[in-house]
Design a protein that fits this description.
The chain is α+β, with helices and mostly antiparallel strands. The protein has four helices and six strands; from the N terminus they run H-E-E-E-E-E-E-H-H-H. Strands 1, 2, 3, 4, 5 and 6 form a six-stranded antiparallel β-sheet that branches. A hairpin with a 6-residue loop joins strand 3 and strand 4. Helix 1 runs antiparallel to helix 2. The protein is elongated, with a radius of gyration of 21 Å. The mean pLDDT is about 90.
């Protein structure tokens, strides 16, 4: 009898540990995504406009910012290279407050901002399936993460 209760305790401890790992992965994915996503999701009152890519370096692309509305025109703003396609492209952006950095808006920008969450969902699916042995939930989580990543790839 003692062996059975200690075995049950180990199973619960393993499940709790795996649940904590899943929670940690998902919280880290949301926090990583929120750094860019909050400029898109909570864009009311921020400077909106269009950026035209004029050149790209190793990590960032630059170009002028043409405002739409009350924003001020800027001769040079920067954006992550992974979001900017190529020289001459124009797309809607929002300026990060207090900087000359911009974040792409619209569906492509929204999806790109949530890419870290997509990766976290894929990793969490492995832990859910292997550690917690919840295969249906693992498949759902993995499909959600993969869908987000594929949609971002197609949109950009």
């Amino acid at each position: 009898m003692k062996r059975s209760s200690s075995h049950r305790a180990l199973v619960y401890a393993r499940s709790a540990a795996m649940g904590c790992v899943v929670l940690l992965l998902l919280v880290a994915g949301v926090l990583s995504s929120w750094g860019s996503a909050h400029h898109i999701v909570l864009a009311k009152g921020r400077e909106h406009g269009t950026m035209t890519v004029t050149g790209c370096g190793a990590d960032v692309c630059t170009g002028p910012f043409a405002p739409s509305g009350q924003a001020a025109a800027r001769p040079r703003v920067t954006i992550e290279k992974s979001v900017a396609a190529r020289r001459g492209d124009r797309f809607p952006v929002v300026v990060k407050p207090g900087t000359d950095d911009v974040v792409r808006t619209g569906t492509p920008g929204f999806l790109h901002a949530w890419v870290p969450l997509g990766g976290a969902l894929l990793l969490a699916a492995l832990v859910i399936g292997g550690g917690l042995r919840l295969s249906r939930i693992a498949w759902g989580t993995g499909v959600a993460g993969a869908t987000l990543l594929v949609a971002t790839f197609i949109a950009l």
